[in-house]
Amino acid sequence: MLNLFLTLQNAQEGAETITEGESVEKTLSIIELITSGGAAGQVIIAILFLLLIFAVYIYFERLFAIKAASKVDSNFMNQIKDHVSNGKIDSAQVLCAQVNTPVSRLIGKGITRIGKPLADINTTIENAGRLEIYGLEKNVSILATISGAAPMIGFLGTVVGMILAIFELANAGGSIQMDVLAGGLYTAMTTTVGGLIVGIVAYIAYNHLVVRTDKVVYQMEANSLEFLDHLNEPI
User: Are 46 and 34 in contact (CB under 8 A)?
Assistant: First the structure.
């Protein structure tokens, strides 16, 4: 009878221990998730992190430059047309130099060709416009490269992680241990997520800069046409 009582008591304690063990939830922070991926996963995550920093830097540097380029005084073209109509070419050039925006530099190039055929003035403005567009798009193509390369680097980590997991399975000797497979699986999953995050951020940043650049280009074209139309007006 005493043995039966002790057996029941031990069984009850064991059940309580299992219940307590099941109630404990295992948490995993981002740092632990990265460090659990092994050396290969950490290297790839480090590369993705550097790409993310580079992409964010290029985005904000270009964004501020494009914002500065898009600031044009609404009265600028009226002043230019007044100076040109009154024959004050030097005053018009000084005004363009003071404003110092892509639009003003284009108009300034056109002003230096006043007196020559309108086609020559138009060609000069177009050539200057190409240079201005090239300056606005500086390093923007790098964002497009990062948006495509980052997911591929993440998938590379996935392949490496799966290879490590299969290698551990092959060397397990018939017994599968989940803790042995964890390192390879962590590498596979974390690098994929990291690559997709960096790729998405770079892709959105690239498209936003392209839209902002196009607005400045349209602004340049509109002001250039207005300037050429003014020169083509009969005196």
Answer: no
